[in-house]
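Researcher: Next sequence.
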Amino acid sequence: MLTKILSSYGISPAAIIQPHGSGLINNTWKVMDLSGNYIFQKINNDVFKEPWNIADNIETISCHLNKEQPGYFFVTPIKTIEGKTIVYKENEGYFRLFPFVKNSHTVNVAETPQQAYEAARQFGLFTKMLKSLPVETLKITLPDFHNLSMRYSQFLRACAEGNPSRIKEAQSEIQFLQTHRHIVSTFNEIKNSPDFKLRVTHHDTKISNVLFDEKNKGICVIDLDTVMPGYFISDVGDMLRTYLSPASEEEKDFTKIIIRDEYFEAILQGYLYEMADELTAKETRYFVYSGMFMIYMQALRFLADYLNDDIYYGAAYNGQNYVRAQNQLSLLRRLMDKENFLYEMVIAAAKKAIL
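Model: Next structure:
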């Protein structure tokens, strides 16, 4: 089946096809052919209901960059023989092909502050390069993806209508989330504040969505399915959530969850290197909040799913989403403990960037 779809791009049936990467949403393969090497993907249209919106956004961004920022390296999909960027096969789904960037690699976990710096700089550069693109020209590929108000409402509904025994078990976590609903109130203030700008935002800034060269320097960002209008807190927040602690969201030993100051500084310096002149003064003051925003939202989602009997994320073992929620709440507490210290770091870095 794959070779038949690849033939739409002129790829030989003799091409070597191997699974590639660690993404959880789309299926990805590396294709090796006499004509070159490629990345081949099947888009998960259970998650992305309108795959053509993704294709339209990438085309819009590509055209804008070619005109306004021709020196910026941007990986665009390869067109089929018929000139299409997506192949749709009934009962099979939606597929696309990208060139494989020579001498590039990805990493699944931020292993050094330098890697965190390079990733943050690349995500900041991506947004900066698109600052003149009217955000309203982009289509929404995941409605309400980072809408914290909606996620909180879903959580409250799960607390009222979910599994009674699980609700009872999770009373401590439920109370903590409700006690800190000021994080939701702050998000609502951000949405209504002229000091916070809607920008072209990646929305999925895990480090595996950055290509690195042989010297571990950032090349570009990839996986643009979630690129939509958004606030900087989404991109910075996801980096803080996924880079700061050496323990992943699957870790059951919560004592391993810590905030590594040097990684925070790396994200801060890398992002501000590109975005210091783009962020408003008020946005900069919410740099630490962005981490609380994203961690709190992920805790809400994990716990709501647990209360609803794991209907969204599923569970590899009984209680997995409860563990994930507790994990994220531990991370949130660690970040809150260091909030003032990290805030001072942000102010100092912002002043230095201005000077």
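Model: Residues 287-307 form the longest helix (21 residues). Strands lie at 16-19, 27-33, 36-43, 87-89, 93-99, 199-201, 210-212, 218-221, 228-230.
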